[in-house]
């Protein structure tokens, strides 16, 4: 398929069907599905068929609309009315209301800060297109970036554009994407690989799942552009087996793109070929680490190895390999379409663009959001998130999962970017953001993450395997009221040891939740140890 | 060296699905995890015969197959109960009360997470995070995700299975 044909396809898709007067877009991402959105969609279709309105009104399954807590969500166009918590029984009323007054009791105010304060790049197609139809994606400028790259740009120009954009890895560490690409491009080797890391293991994070379920082609396009830039012809998508819907939609997307010649051999009629295969993860958090992920694709236990050599030089089966996160790849096509300078104009000086966050925990509006870098935590939690429900008080926000930390109230006005978060002892991470109120005990939260690290440690290096277990043991002693101040000193000593001597990121960051809670909520530790009391009333004391 | 393809442990027709997976990957030893996924999806768990067969077919040492099967949490070497209840223990679910859900089920059915009731009706499992954080606490009843689950609701859903 040539770029010209692509444009024609997009246009013919628009013209082929006379646009129905009304379109009801029902969210069919996992969140709303589990709230019953597929049944609602069926009920709507039946209702429309019964009234013989098939030509007037279309019911469409779309990706994530964001506000998961109010699911099932749907958007009625062209009225632009959003409905929340819809049940099958509401179908007749909704169909009846088309073109008339909307169903008052179901309306979800789309002018609330949750929607207006967001800035969508990665999620621009989420909730708009049907993720199972490539035509929908193409009609929204899909694959034009790939066609342009193949037609007009050299690999070096692509890398320059990405470098100019200032895009940094969205998996957590924030390594400059352009630099990574150029390292792989420069590496010698008869074969090269591109891997998309979709092993979203952080508990409390679902950005990647949502992107894959809502806009799978975007990720594939980003991977293909990356492959062209670095000189690879084979790609792997490493997805968690726990995300069956994402896997299903990816398989569909790959098949569709291959059929149109947008993946596979001689893409867009050029000499460039790129094949993508899916590899299923099997539930190991450590496989988010790039060398462990590579071992897992090779069919081995997911154990990391020391770096250097980095995968950019010595990766999958020893060949140079580019590994980026789902969200990073999802940013590529818009950067090519709109230019690196456009992307660089969004965000802060050192963190460009936007970031998708999974907002969850003790906050009113839980769901998926995308905000420009540099927005404050207060804006995210209190404006977009709507604050803390049930009259409770904000206590801390946890970012970065088991590798991150808990940020207390005094930093709420801090801008959210890679460096500011690191300064207060947390990390950007992949984008999980869990809000906690006074009913959460910080020692218990630290213990929760340590328990996670103990069971997810791969066992290869001693500091991580034994150190995390000892730290868990000490935390357990503290939460059951049996610890002394010496135990606390030992815990702090262990934090340092595990942090500086572990082999991979899992061990090196495992102490972060303990360190950050010790830094900001030390009095809670003391209360457990000295007063034998849990201020939040969570921990059961033995005495 | 000549290699003869081993025959499956039984003439159960479902082995054809597993064979198809291995064939698609050219019986490459790299396809070990894919093959184990296929076995587990087809039979529900990985038993010793299955591991031995996969080891032979892909020409991988049995020790390595066992190592991989036990390394990844997704694989199970024990058959599951007739019904499964997976409680998500991700951070969001944890702070919104998932431990109470687990405790309620554990107490009523006298099983710990990872165990199956003596009559084989119910398996209780916990998940690291199923990515339904907006609906915390989330529980998966026989593959169907339910959000904002209270301990009472969980017991009620399970009761429908066990009271029959």
Task: Briefly characterize the structure.
The complex is a heterodimer of chains A (543) and B (164). Helices cover 43% and strands 13% of the residues of chain A. Chain A is of the alpha/beta class.
Distance between the first and last residues' Cα of chain B: 57 Å
Low-confidence stretches of chain B: none
Q: Which range does the strand content of chain A fall in? A: 5-15%
Please give the radius of gyration of chain B in angstroms.
19 Å
Structural class estimated from helices and strands of chain B: alpha+beta
Uncertain residue ranges of chain A: none
Oligomer category: heterodimer
User: Could you report the average pLDDT of chain B, rounded to the nearest whole number?
Assistant: 93
Approximate helicity band of chain A: 40-55%
Indicate the overall shape of chain A.
globular
Amount of helix of chain B: 40-55%
The end-to-end distance of chain A, rounded to whole angstroms, is 73 Å
Rg over alpha carbons of chain A = 24 Å
Mean pLDDT of chain A equals 94
The number of helices of chain B is: 7
Q: How many strand segments of chain A?
A: 13
What's the SSE pattern of chain B?
HHHHEHHEEEH
> How much beta of chain B, percentage-wise?
5-15%
Describe the protein's architecture and organization.
The complex is a heterodimer of chains A (543) and B (164). By secondary structure, chain A is α/β, with parallel strands linked by helices. Helix content of chain A is 43%, strand content 13%. Chain A has a five-stranded mixed β-sheet. Chain A has a four-stranded mixed β-sheet with strand order 2-1-3-4, covered by helices on one side. Chain A starts with a helix and ends in a 14-residue tail after the last helix. In chain A, 57% of the residues are buried. The mean pLDDT of chain A is 94. Chain B contains seven helices and four strands; from the N terminus they run ααααβααβββα. The longest helix of chain B is centred in the N-terminal third of the chain and has 12 residues, at 32-43. Chain B has helices spanning 15-24, 32-43, 48-58, 62-71, 91-95, 98-109, 151-162; strands spanning 83-88, 122-127, 139-141, 144-146. Chain B has a four-stranded mixed β-sheet with strand order 2-1-3-4, covered by helices on one side. Chain B has 164 residues and is an alpha+beta fold. The mean pLDDT of chain B is 93. Chains A and B meet through helix 2, strand 9, strand 13 and helix 18 of A and helix 2, helix 4, helix 5 and strand 4 of B.
